[in-house]
Design brief:
single chain; 312 residues; alpha+beta; Phosphorylase Kinase, domain 1; five-stranded antiparallel sheet; 10 helices; globular
Length: 312
């Protein structure tokens, strides 16, 4: 019996007749599950991945909020919500993996495509509605509230100081070539972190990972992958949009909901730099701690070079 079959039967009372691998994301695997007339989507986080603890630690905190938003706003059908197990949990796990099960959505991620005008309008309505929720939501939000800490920076700084024999050759070469640039970004993000901690900033619910691979076109446009849900300044989402050709149109609609909103440049720069450094750290973690093929290593070094390209 397939290990997924046993898990699905035991935890969800779902009896698969077909399990098909789908294109997963950067940090998880994906499977389409057919069980009688029902179809499901299984998201699988592998426990041996360096990224998994961070992405799964707050499932029990963020999923109830996502479900509540889906039921208490005009975002119904715009946000996928994991199903509960027979015991009432939003996730289950075994020795190797952590699982989330969803009703299957027949759609396609936007990915490398540009947004159409209609999709831009839909996205603006979705994010404006999301940002209408703040600290008043009926859930504990302590673990999800932005504190402007950047704990991964300490680990990244350590690796930047490692001698050559302690890191893979390809990684050492990359870090050596880009150390000055990365250190400058670290200094800037630390300064902004200190400044923003004492600033009076409005916090709203933010997705915090609004790239086009997390947008899906089905009957409607959906925003998927809510692991990063946070109570944060709106710039935590705006950082993904400001350089897009559709940003002006997006803001025209967004400001119908949030008339007094103006971008805080310090917060925007903080999130842009933090994201760049966080991506560098996560790729570095992969090279340091995961067993990778030569092809995977070359691909990751390519991503790292893109992140440190001066034009980005």
């Amino acid at each position: 019996m397939n290990k997924f079959t046993a898990m699905l039967q035991e935890e969800y009372d779902v009896h698969p007749v077909q399990i098909q691998s789908k294109q997963g994301g950067w940090a998880s695997l994906a499977f389409e599950i057919k069980a009688g007339k029902a179809v499901y989507f299984l998201k699988v986080y592998e426990k041996n991945r360096a990224s998994t603890p961070k992405l799964t630690a707050l499932i029990d905190q963020y999923v109830p909020i996502v479900e509540w938003i889906e039921h208490n706003s005009n975002l119904k059908g715009r946000i996928p919500v994991p199903m509960q197990t027979k015991e009432g949990y939003y996730k289950c796990d075994d020795e190797e993996n952590i699982y989330l099960l969803y009703p299957f959505i027949n759609g396609k991620t936007i990915g490398e495509q540009d947004l159409t005008e209609q999709q831009t309008e839909e996205l603006a309505h979705i994010i404006a509605a999301l940002h209408s929720f703040g600290e008043e939501i009926p859930f504990p939000t302590g673990a999800l509230t932005e504190d402007f800490e950047v704990p991964f920076i300490r680990e990244l700084e350590k690796v930047l100081d490692y001698s050559e024999e302690h890191v893979p050759k390809e990684l050492h070469l990359f870090l050596h070539e880009n150390q000055e640039r990365i250190n400058k970004w670290i200094t800037n993000v630390k300064e902004l972190s200190t400044k923003l901690k004492s600033a009076s900033l409005n916090r709203v619910l933010c997705h915090t990972d609004l790239h086009h691979w997390n947008l899906m076109q089905a009957e409607n446009l959906l925003v998927i992958d809510w692991e990063g849900l946070k109570l944060a300044p709106a710039e935590a989402d705006m950082m993904f949009l400001t350089s897009e050709p559709y940003f002006k149109k997006f803001m025209e609609i967004y400001r119908k909901y949030h008339k007094n909103y103006h971008i805080n440049k310090d917060a925007l720069t903080f999130y842009q730099l933090k994201r760049k450094l966080e991506d560098i750290w996560e790729f570095t973690e992969q090279l340091l701690y995961e067993e990778l093929s030569t092809k995977d290593k070359d691909e990751i070094i390519g991503y790292l070079k893109e992140l440190t390209d001066l034009e980005n």
